[in-house]
Design goal:
Keywords: NAD, Oxidoreductase. It comes from Erythrobacter longus. This is methylmalonate-semialdehyde dehydrogenase (CoA acylating). There is one protein chain. This protein has about 500 residues and is of the alpha/beta class. It has 2 domains: about 230 residues, Aldehyde Dehydrogenase, Chain A, domain 1 (3-Layer(aba) Sandwich), CATH 3.40.605.10; about 180 residues, Aldehyde Dehydrogenase, Chain A, domain 2 (3-Layer(aba) Sandwich), CATH 3.40.309. The chain has a 7-stranded mixed β-sheet with strand order 13-14-15-12-11-17-18, with helices on both faces. The longest helix has 20 residues. It is globular and about 85 Å long. The mean pLDDT is about 95. Bound molecules: nicotinamide-adenine-dinucleotide. The site of nicotinamide-adenine-dinucleotide has 26 residues, from α8.
Length: about 500
C-alpha cells in the first residue's frame, strides 16, 4: 500500500503516525494509498523547523525570493501532466479539469513572482516639519493553511504562494482525502530553491487542526472548507488571538432574465453545475429563471443538454465529469435528492443509483435536475456539493435579487441577461461576494482577490492579490525625524505634554 507521509517525512519519524486514513481511487472504488494522521508532536517539530528557517528567508531580499517563485512556476509547468493525473486519481475530477486546478493555483504563484513590487510600502516626505512617515509590510512568521479536498492544488498555492513570497514559513494541513499533490508541490518548492523546512506539509484530521488552532507560535491561519468547520476555526483561532480567514460552503445562484441567450445559458450551466461533479465552491447548483415563460423555455433546453452529459472515469478524455470523492459523499448526495423529492421538488432527471459499466464500484452520481424547488426546502438551504441542478422559479427581478441575497451562503452568483441596466442593478444590490455577469463561475483573476460573504466567509480579508498580501503581513508605520543638531530634547519642551500634531 502506498503511504503518503508528512513533508519532510522526517517529521513523522517517531511518535505519532499510528492512525491512518484511506485514500480512494474514486473511479475504481478501490483504496489506493493511506495517509498518516498526526497531531501535536508532529506539529511541534514542524513549528521548530519553521522558526529556525523563517528569519533568514525573511531577510532574503524580495527579488531573490521572487526568483524561487519563478523557478517554482517553471517546475509546475514542466510537471503539469503528472500533477494533474495524480490529482484526478485521488479526487476523481477529469484530467483536463485537474490541470485547471493546478493552473488557477499557478496564476497566484505568477502574481507572487511580482512580490518585490507589491511589497513596497508607502512614503510621505515632509508630513510635518522635518518629519517623514513611511510604512513597511513585514511577515508574520509562521502561517498555517487548512485546505479542502476539492481543489488540492489551487487552494494550497493560493495560500503558501502569497505567504512564503511575503517572507513567512508555512505549514500546510491538506485534506486527508487527496493529500498527495500538496506533498508533491512542497517537494517542487524545495527543488525550486526554497529552503528546506520553509514549506512543510503535516497530515491529520481534527486532532491536527486543533493543535494548529492552539499553537502559540502560529499567528495566522487560513482555512477553506465547509461552513460549520470554518466558523469553528474562526472562533477558536480568534479566541487564541490569531489572525484568521475562514472560507465556507456555498449555494451559488444563476439568475436567468427573460432576454438571456438561453443556448449560451444552457451551455454555461452544464459546465458550471456538473463540471467536477458539482464539487466546486463556485459551482452553480441553483438556476433562477425569471418568469414562468423563461422557466419553461430553459427547462426544455436543459433536459436534452443534461441527458447528453457523459459521466466517465477521471482518465476518460471524453468525460464531462467523473466520480465524486468518497462513497460517503455519493450516499449523501443521493440522500439530498431523496429529501428534495420528499419536500415536493420534481425530479426531472434522476442521477440516483447510477453505475458506470465496467466501473460498477466507482463513486458515480448521474446528473440530476430538480424543478419547483422553493426557498423553504432544506435541499435548497443546504449545500449538496454534487451533480445536482435545482430550478427555483422567480416571479420577477426583485425576487431574483432577493433569493441569493437572503440565502445563508454568499459565495458567488451570476446573472444572464442582455440588459445592461438589469445587470448593473443586480451587481450592485445582490448580497453576495463574487458576481458574474454572463459569466457562470466568476472566480476573480489572481491580481484581484477571492472571498464570499455571510456563511461563505468568516473574517474580513480575502484570498490572494493585495488582500492576500495584507493577510500574510503586518504593517509597520514609522514616523521619523532627523534634527539638524544633536538636540533630541523636543525644542523648548513647551508642547511635550500635548498630543503631537503636524502643525
Ligand atoms: P471539510 O470542512 O470537511 O474539510 C476541510 C478541512 O477541514 C480539511 O483539511 C479537514 O481535514 C478539516 N476538518 C474536517 N473536519 C474537521 C473538524 N471536525 N475539525 C477541524 N477540522 C476539520 O471540507 P471538504 O469536504 O474538504 O471541502 C468541501 C467544502 O469546502 C464545501 O463546503 C465547499 O463549498 C467548501 N469550499 C469552499 C471554498 C471557498 O472558497 N469558500 C472553496 C473550496 C471549497
Amino acid at each position: 500500500m502506498r503511504q503518503v507521509d508528512h513533508f519532510p517525512n522526517s517529521l513523522g519519524a517517531s511518535g505519532s503516525g499510528s492512525r491512518t486514513h484511506q485514500i480512494w481511487n474514486p473511479s475504481t472504488g478501490e483504496v489506493q494509498a493511506e495517509v498518516t494522521l498526526a497531531g501535536r508532536d508532529v506539529l511541534d517539530r514542524a513549528v521548530a523547523t519553521a522558526k529556525r528557517v523563517q528569519p533568514e528567508w525573511a531577510a532574503t531580499n524580495p527579488q531573490k525570493r521572487a526568483r524561487v517563485m519563478f523557478k517554482f512556476k517553471e517546475l509546475i509547468e514542466a510537471n503539469m501532466k503528472p500533477l494533474a493525473e495524480l490529482l484526478s486519481s485521488e479526487h476523481g475530477k477529469t484530467v483536463p479539469d485537474a490541470m485547471g486546478d493546478v493552473q488557477r493555483g499557478l496564476e497566484v504563484i505568477e502574481y507572487a513572482c511580482g512580490i518585490p513590487q507589491v511589497l513596497k510600502g508607502e512614503f510621505t516626505q515632509g508630513a510635518g516639519p522635518g518629519i517623514d512617515v513611511y510604512s513597511m509590510r513585514q511577515p508574520l512568521g509562521i502561517g498555517a493553511g487548512i485546505t479542502p479536498f476539492n481543489f488540492p492544488a489551487m487552494i494550497p498555492m493560493w495560500m503558501f504562494g502569497m505567504a512564503c513570497a511575503a517572507g513567512n514559513a508555512f505549514i500546510l494541513k491538506p485534506s486527508e482525502r487527496d493529500p498527495s499533490v500538496p506533498v508533491r508541490l512542497a517537494e517542487l518548492f524545495v527543488e525550486a530553491g526554497a529552503p528546506e523546512g520553509l514549506l512543510q506539509v503535516v497530515h491529520g484530521d481534527k486532532e491536527m487542526v486543533d493543535a494548529i488552532l492552539d499553537h502559540p507560535d502560529i499567528p495566522a491561519i487560513s482555512f477553506v472548507g465547509s461552513s460549520d468547520i470554518a466558523h469553528y476555526i474562526y472562533h477558536r483561532g480568534a479566541e487564541n488571538g490569531k489572525r484568521v480567514q475562514a472560507f465556507g460552503g456555498a449555494k451559488n445562484h444563476g439568475v436567468v432574465m427573460p432576454d438571456a441567450d438561453l443556448d449560451q445559458v444552457v451551455n454555461d450551466l452544464a459546465g458550471a453545475a456538473f463540471g467536477s461533479a458539482g464539487e466546486r465552491c463556485m459551482a452553480l447548483p441553483v438556476v433562477v429563471p425569471v418568469g414562468e415563460d423563461t422557466a419553461e423555455r430553459l427547462k426544455e433546453k436543459l433536459i436534452p443538454a443534461i441527458h447528453a452529459l457523459r459521466v466517465g472515469v477521471s482518465t476518460d478524455p471524453d468525460a464531462h465529469y467523473g466520480p465524486v470523492v468518497t462513497p460517503e459523499h455519493k450516499a449523501r448526495i443521493e440522500q439530498w435528492i431523496t429529501t428534495a423529492e420528499e419536500e415536493g421538488g420534481e425530479i426531472v432527471i434522476d442521477g440516483r443509483g447510477f453505475t458506470l459499466q465496467g466501473h460498477e464500484k466507482g463513486f458515480f452520481v448521474g446528473p440530476t435536475l430538480i424543478d419547483h424547488v422553493t426557498p423553504e426546502m432544506s435541499s435548497y438551504k443546504e449545500e449538496i456539493f454534487g451533480p445536482v441542478l435545482q430550478i427555483v422559479r422567480a416571479r420577477d427581478f426583485e425576487e431574483a435579487v432577493r433569493l441569493p441575497s437572503e440565502h445563508q451562503y454568499g459565495n458567488g452568483v451570476a446573472i444572464f441577461t442582455r440588459n445592461g441596466h438589469a445587470a448593473r442593478e443586480f451587481a450592485s444590490r445582490v448580497q453576495v461576494g463574487m458576481v458574474g455577469v454572463n459569466v457562470p463561475i466568476p472566480v476573480p483573476v489572481a491580481y484581484h482577490s477571492f472571498g464570499g460573504w455571510k456563511r461563505s466567509g468568516f473574517g474580513d480579508i480575502d484570498q490572494y492579490g493585495t488582500e492576500g498580501l495584507a493577510f500574510w503581513t503586518k504593517k509597520k508605520k514609522i514616523t521619523e525625524r532627523w534634527p539638524e543638531t544633536n538636540d533630541f530634547g523636543g525644542g523648548d519642551g513647551s508642547n511635550a505634554f500635548v498630543i503631537p500634531t503636524m502643525g
